[in-house]
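Recall that a protein's primary structure is simply its ordered list of amino acids. Everything else, from secondary elements to tertiary packing, is in principle encoded there. The following example makes that idea concrete.
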Amino acid sequence: MRPSEIMRGSPAAHEAQVTRGNWRTFPAISWGFTHVREFLPTAEVRRSPQPTAIASAPRDVARIGFATADGKPTTVQSTLHETFSDALLVMHRGMLIHEWYGDGMTATTPHLVCSISKSVAGTLGGILFARGLIDPEARVTRYIPELEPSVYSDCTVRNLLDMAVGINFEEDYEDPAGDVARYRFSSGWDLPPAGVEASDQRTYLATLRPSGIPHGKVFHYVSPNTEVLGWVYERACGQPYARILSDYLWQPMGAEEDGSMTLDSHGMGRIAGGLSVTARDLSRFGEMIRCRGVVEGRQVVPGWWVDDIHNNGDPQAWADGDLAEIFPGARYRSKWYAIDASRNDLAAIGIHGQWLYVDEASDTVIVKLATQPKAMDIPIDHRWLAAFRAITAHLSL
């Protein structure tokens, strides 16, 4: 079945319907990622009453050529059509120079951004820290004493931000009975099989245990750490996460459209991966990061927090961690990837093909959204990273 046939008809044919049981599988994912609010409970992430303007100056980006990792010649346009892409936006020195959407996408269509949600949460942390609401060096249990019996009893907020918690958890998206599966049952993303209790995220987080590796030493990618981070924000601010994100970041940034955050059965947001926003608003977010937190002269995110993200990821923790082979020589800080230290670039990355790439050297911000069938497809990620570098090289001429 083609993606264009999904959810067509009144009602759609049984095989064309999207449910909680299939919404992240191909081809249902092509509809599911842009209609999350229609089958999962969500909270609104409110837009700004005065959106930040985006000026356009179109340039031909699609024809830019480059070589894939195995040396095959290709173009940006071919890569778009061969990798299940939904949107590609390129901003250069604050101008939107390229805007492309696939079937079912427009400038106002919200799209699930998966773990780009984490980078948004890490950025929000800088705002809350500057306002004295959180302390990155404080223990998690200062805010959430209920987590005292868990792995989080002796780790800090900084350990959460940098994915440096010594936790017994494997981020395996393919294991139907693994840690990620149980985590997704608690978040409400998946229906548990008969005999398995769904629980809720906060209850689930309290069950997680240490691995024996000291906190702060090794990068270990674990999505529940970001749920705990969001819970810390909620305790510090006395508000739900979606409201905190709206009030402190999304509205001050000048978002043009409402976003949403998926919720579990107890109303807790899926902070690590449940954010849906438009590609244009994601480009606004990336442009703000490129400009050290400034939007139209307003300091929305502290400049020193953005500088810290660029400069202070631990290279040894990354080298000893579980993604070092994918991006050799990278660093990770406050939920952002610094892929190439020589370029001072940053990336926010989500499964199924979500990318926000910020290249300081060429003053470029790139948003690429997709609905790739596989959660992790490293050859496609490497192909797109080569495309981003070809685009930035072209714009640097």
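The chain is about 30% helix and 15% strand. The CA atoms of residues 234 and 240 lie 6 Å apart.
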